[in-house]
Input
Amino acid sequence: MLHRDVQAFAAGVVGLGLQRGERVGIYLEKRCEAVIASFGAPAAGGVMVPLNPLLKPEQVAFILRDCNARVLVTTSERLALLAPVLGGCEDMRHVVLTEGKDLPGRSVLPGALAVTAWRGLLACAPRGGHRVIDTDVTAILYTSGSTGRPKGVVLSHRNMVAGAKSVASYLGNCAQDTLLAALPLSFDAGFSQLTTAFHAGARVVLLNYLLPRDVLKTMASEKVTGLTAVPPLYIQLAALEWPAAIGDHLRYFANTGGRMPAETLTLLRQRVPAAKPFLMYGLTEAFRSTYLPPEEVDRRPDSIGKAIPNAEILVLREDGSECAPNEPGELVHRGALVGLGYWNDPDKTAERYRLLPGRDRALQLPEYAVFSGDTVRRDEEGFLYFIGRRDEMIKTSGYRVSPTEVEEVIYATRLVGECAAFGVDHPVLGQAIQVVATPPAGTDGVDSAALLLECKARMPAYMVPAGVKAVAGPLPRNPNGKIDRRRLATDWVERRNQ
Output
């Protein structure tokens, strides 16, 4: 049935005029239509662009404009929210609505935009999709960029298949597995639950949970054998009592999106002692990079492990030479999982996707690898340990948040003069977002409560600052004249610890 619907969707969007390589935005919660569209767009020869359902309309519109989306798949309720900001999406021609009774009036939609019902689309006459090969683009996954705006990581069919095969091999996925899709499908690790399961012939349960307890109930009722989640969710789950039935079926649990706290890992292993823990490290730019085998967890719980199958992880100095054991260096990923760069961003692509220096000089064609920006070390036995990030990205609730993006939203409120956002360690979130702000010109102070209300209205929940500290200003600058976030973060931590 899934294969039939995927082929029907592919025929439908080709019938709408979708050309080879054109983008299909998917703005839905986790549901069958999201899965069908995600695989149907590439089957048509197009490119799927899954959008996090937590994003606000302005953020969705930016992504649709940035990737020049031709088709959008969503619900009528979501379309009504998007309608005021779709005017700038000049390349979009079609919206496919999965459901909903209250359609936005034609007067509020751009004139060139045609609306098609899901059932009607799938009822189109069968037809083949455009011809593609494994190095063609299959997906663009958007992740927060260090310059403020989300950047689209471009992945090929080969990247997706190689990643699914690799992850399924070390997790031991098989047709008897039931995987729980708790992460957003716009995450590489979230979408991996689909590709990995389909590669192994396993079953996937889609879950849009409200409370952590909903996750446990679903794991018990659906007899889930594999769970992949981010540390903040695991911290919440570890604090709850687990139904005994979970332990009868759960074969493994895996983390992504940050380091698992040792105490949380200990509690999880007490809850499900028969389940194997897989501690993983990944890059959207290369899908997944390393994992720590369960048998090594007791010996080195702070390690991110070794390279996954069909990947090589290098630790390099700035001159491109290999680091000695225990010498800090940049993590560099080479192999079949390395993506195709960032959509419409040659400068950022050149920064992260670079030629490998010092490879075999007899090879004539260049090889590109992903330079992660993360500092790690490798011990004498080859196990890797995360040290820190070279940029200022904030890792909160499993999301990578750009401080610049937070600041742009805050500046747009006109409730501050200057501001700086940064991350500070948090026992549940990984990092919490803090903001230091100065009053607007001609005023005496910052209305922190009003500012946070505006943030909640303009940002997804995971991006809303945990707190705002008002200062007289001006904010400190670094030698380049930019606001010194690192100094502000250090000062904030020192004040907290006093």
Notes: The first helix runs from residue 2 to 15. The radius of gyration is 23 Å. The chain has a mean pLDDT of 90. Residues 2-132 form a domain with the Rossmann fold fold (CATH 3.40.50.980).
